[in-house]
């Protein structure tokens, strides 16, 4: 039974080191409604803090979040946690809801990360910030289904409004292309100086992806659930025109 920090025998993901800020951040202070209310939907452990940093540097506008815990956020960069209005460029949510309060999101960015990585990352994060130790095997099994339900729920947003799917792994292999897709979706102009700065600072950010089977901390039962679920979800993702 695993009941402490669980590690993969593969190389672990490298931590973000900010060499320089590419532009200062501000709240949007234009006309009410000038920014579409945008959800940034991500399953826990999907790398949303790093992705929000990229959005900040690309747009110069803060992102908000549905929760105001500021858990793990010690930088002023995330001072808008808890802000859920049009003063922020996007609102992070780990919930299954197309609404924030009584207001419906107008568009959604869905951040998708390999569930083998995200579930393990979130388990370790939870055990680092909480005094309550969880059982790894039961947690992994529950979350393997939760990941699938979350993804299927937010994929349905495509029938409600504009949906942009961003695969976390693509941020490591084709960052410039992903940033340009993001800018187009958010309807923001791209400053080439800022873009160059972001790309320069991103060097070395991404580590290897843990193996699904060899030296995996997942039991065979959970691996089978995840492999099938991952294949089904990614099959649906790649049917969308914007991926």
Automatic annotation (TrEMBL):
<dbReference type="InterPro" id="IPR051589">
    <property type="entry name" value="Sialate-O-sulfotransferase"/>
</dbReference>
<dbReference type="InterPro" id="IPR000863">
    <property type="entry name" value="Sulfotransferase_dom"/>
</dbReference>
<dbReference type="InterPro" id="IPR027417">
    <property type="entry name" value="P-loop_NTPase"/>
</dbReference>
<protein>
    <recommendedName>
        <fullName>Sulfotransferase domain-containing protein</fullName>
    </recommendedName>
</protein>
<dbReference type="Pfam" id="PF00685">
    <property type="entry name" value="Sulfotransfer_1"/>
</dbReference>
<comment type="similarity">
    <text>Belongs to the WSCD family.</text>
</comment>
<dbReference type="GO" id="GO:0008146">
    <property type="term" value="F:sulfotransferase activity"/>
</dbReference>
<feature type="domain" description="Sulfotransferase">
    <location>
        <begin position="106"/>
        <end position="202"/>
    </location>
</feature>
């Amino acid at each position: 039974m695993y009941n402490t920090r669980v590690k993969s025998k593969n190389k672990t993901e490298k931590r973000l080191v900010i060499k320089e800020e590419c532009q200062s951040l501000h709240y949007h202070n234009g006309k009410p409604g000038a920014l579409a209310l945008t959800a940034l939907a991500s399953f826990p452990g999907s790398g949303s803090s790093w992705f929000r940093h990229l959005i900040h540097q690309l747009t110069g506008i803060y992102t908000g979040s549905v929760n105001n815990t500021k858990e793990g956020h010690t930088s002023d960069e995330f001072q808008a946690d808890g802000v859920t209005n049009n003063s922020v460029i996007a609102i992070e949510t780990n919930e299954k809801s197309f609404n924030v309060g009584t207001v419906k999101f107008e568009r959604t960015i869905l951040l998708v990360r390999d569930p083998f990585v995200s579930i393990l990352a979130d388990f370790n994060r939870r055990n680092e910030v909480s005094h309550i130790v969880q059982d790894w095997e039961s947690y992994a099994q529950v979350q393997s289904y939760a990941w699938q339900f979350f993804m299927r729920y937010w994929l349905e947003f495509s029938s409600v409004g504009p949906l942009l799917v961003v695969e976390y792994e693509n941020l490591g292999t084709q960052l410039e292309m992903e940033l340009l897709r993001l800018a187009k979706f958010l309807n923001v102009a791209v400053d080439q100086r800022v873009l160059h700065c972001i790309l320069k600072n991103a060097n070395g950010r991404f580590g290897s992806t843990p193996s699904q089977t060899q030296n995996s901390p997942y039991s065979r039962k959970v691996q089978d659930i995840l492999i099938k679920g991952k294949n089904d979800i990614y099959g649906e993702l790649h049917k969308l025109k914007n991926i």
